[in-house]
Amino acid sequence: MRLAAPRIEPVDMDRLDQAQQEALGPFASPDNKVGGGRVLNIFRTLAHAPKALAAFLGWGNYVLSRRNALPERERELVILRTGWNCKSGYEWMQHRRIGLDCGLTTEEVERVKQGPDAPGWTPLESALLRAADELVGNHFVSDGTWAALAELGDKGRMDLVFTVGQYTQVSMLLNSFGVQLEDGETCDPDLKG
Questions:
Q1: Could you tell me which residues come within 8 angstroms of residue 151 by beta carbon, excluding any fewer than 6 positions away?
Q2: In CATH, which of 3.40.449.10, 3.40.50.360, 3.40.50.1820, 1.20.1290.10 is domain 72-179?
C-alpha cells in the first residue's frame, strides 16, 4: 500500500446525497436500498464524483464481462501483472481473490510477480504478461509481443490493451486517493510501503 491512510475518505453510506445514491445503485441490496450490502472502499471513494463513478462502472463492466475476448483466467493474469507493476496493494488483493476464482492457482498468482520470463508460463501467458509490462512501462506493445499474441486475434489484442489501460487507471486512482483495504484484509507483504 502506498499510503497508510486515505487522502479521500470513503463516503458515509448513511449520508449519501441523491447523486451518490444513484451512482451506487448497482450495489443496491435486494430491497433496493443502497448500503444494504457491502460496498467496496473503491466505490465508496469514487462516489465523491458520482457521474465519474457511473461512467467508470460502465467501462469497467465491459472489461470484466464476457464481451471481453480475453478468457477470465488470462484477463486476471493481465490485471494482476498490471496491479503489480503499478504497486497497487488494493488492486492486487482484490484481483488475487478474483484470479483464484477464475482458475489461477496460488502458485501462479505468486509467479505473476516474477513476470513473463518466470519458468512455467505457456508462450501465450508469457506474451500476455510481457504486453502488460510493455504497456505500463512504455505505453506500447512491441512488434515481437504483438506477434506472440496473434492467437488472440485483433479483438483479443484490443481487449488486452483495454484491460491494461483500465487497470492502470484503477491503480492510479487507488494509489493516489489512498483507498485502503477492506476490513479484515491484509496487504501482500511485497506491496507494503
A1: 124
A2: 1.20.1290.10
